Amino acid sequence: MGCTFKGYNLDDYGVIFEKMPAIKKPKRRTEDIYIDNKDGYKPNELGYDGYTSESIAILTESEHFDFLKGLFDGPGALIRNDDPTRYINAKILNEVEYQVLGNALLATIEFTIEHPFKYLVADVPQVITTFPNTITNNGNVYSRPYLTIEGSGSVTVTINGTTFSYNFPVGEDVEMDCEVQDSYHEGILRNQYMSGYYPRLEPGSNAISITGSVTSVKVENASRWL
After folding, report:
1. pLDDT tens digits, the chain, 226 residues: what are they?
2. What are the distances in angstroms from CA 188 to CA 102, 144, 185?
3. Domain 123-220 adopts which CATH fold?
4. pTM, 2 dp
5. What is the DSSP string of 176-206?
6. Domain ranges in the chain with CATH number 2.40.30.200
7. Fold of 3-119
8. What are the start and end residues of each CATH 2.60.120.860 domain in the chain?
9. How far is CA 91 from CA 10, 56, 108, 115, in A?
10. How far apart, in Å, are the Cα atoms of 106 and each of 22, 23, 66, 111?
11. Can you tell me the distance from the alpha carbon of 205 to that of 137, in angstroms, rounded to the nearest whole number?
12. Under 8 Å between Cβ of 116 and 64
């Protein structure tokens, strides 16, 4: 059993894993809140924490050593071959130790998982053209989708009870990255035209309603998993 990193199936390059990179259920980050004259404390939940995952791999084909040493650096999508339909965003930030084993190399690789959720490799966007409607999160945890909205004038959008407004400049659509909470048009920030809160999608169906002129809403990365 192996994995794919940055689009390269490592089985094809003679990589054999003695220890696969583990995909973990991330820890919930909390802040303890104490109230005077009240026993105990109340945990304030702040989201999910990242983690690191160590793997041990044997590089068996010397003609690929240089390529693999370059590959094992920086960010990329990590897909375990036992779950080929989903990926997690991973980074190799720390040093990679290589030990010579005859004609092979033993590599100790630490993957940093800053954003601890899995997404579909073949994500199919949901395109909504009639309102009110629903957006489906097929995953098992809330998601913060990527929205592309075509509209005009001043519109108000409510998704799963969260409302935001956007004032479209003439001839523009808008892309909203709800994860980083920024709005763009052709790569240029358009946060000045947005007010309110970026929505999140709970598992299952999420209601969407519109006030104003909206032609379509395209929803990407609607589903994600722990």
Report:
1. 799 999 999 999 999 999 999 989 899 887 777 777 677 766 676 789 999 999 999 999 999 999 999 999 999 999 999 999 999 999 999 999 999 999 999 999 999 999 999 999 999 999 999 999 999 999 999 999 999 999 999 999 999 999 999 999 999 999 999 999 999 999 999 999 999 999 999 999 999 999 999 999 999 999 999 9
2. 53, 20, 5
3. Jelly Rolls (2.60.120)
4. 0.88
5. EETTTTEEEETTEE-GGGEEE----B-SEEE
6. 3-119
7. Elongation Factor Tu (Ef-tu); domain 3 (2.40.30)
8. 123-220
9. 16, 16, 14, 10
10. 18, 21, 14, 16
11. 6
12. no
Structure token digits, residue 16: 């054999």
CB 92 within 8 A of CB 201: no
Q: Report which residue type is found at 50.
A: G
